[in-house]
Write a structure and sequence with these properties.
This protein has 235 residues and is mainly α. The chain has twelve helices and five strands. The strands form two sheets. It has a three-stranded antiparallel β-sheet. The longest helix is centred in the N-terminal third of the chain and has 18 residues.
């Protein structure tokens, strides 16, 4: 199968010296990433430079030129995007008059972590994993953040809703894909992939989820739930 060329006439580039042609491709990719509202896939970039161009090499050369700049190119959620370097985040928020992003509550962090590793999960399965009641309000609040979404219906009786993480989850925590989550074997070796790790919040901290301090309501809910043998499903 012939390799795809850019989706417009690039005949004039064939007469250019290789270095100038490469600079043109770098400019196109940088412009696309600058204008894009989210991560840009390889397929999308190939439309402007063609499949025969080594896109990773283009990205690497652009990154090198940005080394001294306050922003960078990162690969998250299956594509590349521009983002400000982390050290400048407080100044950006101050200029915009925006408060810092609120950390997740301890229960929310545990729920997101469980879903990330074991998705798709029903609410009942989350309750079982975390050994506490997970309310519909907690799940609704997480859905409002965009970090989780409804997944396929479970094949269990009643076809309850399942929950999965989203592209926004990958973007927020800097993962290119779910394969970039800390390896389960490594977490097991470190004693983090366990019920105790879920309950303590250590596993969420292990891959960068900022956790708020638990409040009394959460602690009371966990205490009341301990030892309960069954969990209700939801539609």
């Amino acid at each position: 199968m012939a390799r795809r060329r850019a989706e417009f006439d690039d005949a004039e580039l064939e007469e250019m010296p290789a270095e100038l042609r490469w600079r043109e491709y770098m400019g196109r990719v940088e412009a696309v990433l600058f204008a894009a509202p989210g991560p840009v896939t390889r397929e999308a970039l190939a439309r402007v430079v063609g499949d025969e161009v080594r896109i990773e090499a283009l990205i690497d050369d652009i990154r090198e030129e940005l080394r001294a700049r306050p922003y960078e190119i990162v690969f998250v959620a299956g594509g590349w995007r521009f983002q400000s370097r982390a050290k400048f985040a407080p100044y950006i928020r101050a200029a915009a008059g925006a408060p810092a992003s609120a950390p997740l509550s301890e229960t929310q962090a545990r729920v997101v972590t469980a879903i990330a590793y074991f998705q798709p999960l029903t609410r009942a399965e989350l309750c079982q994993i975390l050994c506490r009641e997970i309310s519909r309000d907690v799940l609704a609040a997480l859905r409002a953040t965009g970090l989780i979404a409804a997944g396929p219906r479970s094949p269990r009786a009643g076809a309850p809703v399942t929950y999965v993480t989203t592209g926004k989850f990958l973007e927020r925590f800097g993962f290119a894909s779910l394969r970039d989550l800390p390896e389960m074997e490594k977490l097991e070796d470190e004693g983090l992939l366990s019920k105790e790790a879920f309950l303590s919040g250590e596993l969420a901290s292990a891959f960068g989820i900022e956790i708020d301090e638990p409040d009394e309501a959460e602690e009371d809910s966990a205490a009341e739930f301990a030892g309960q043998p069954s969990y209700g499903e939801e539609d």
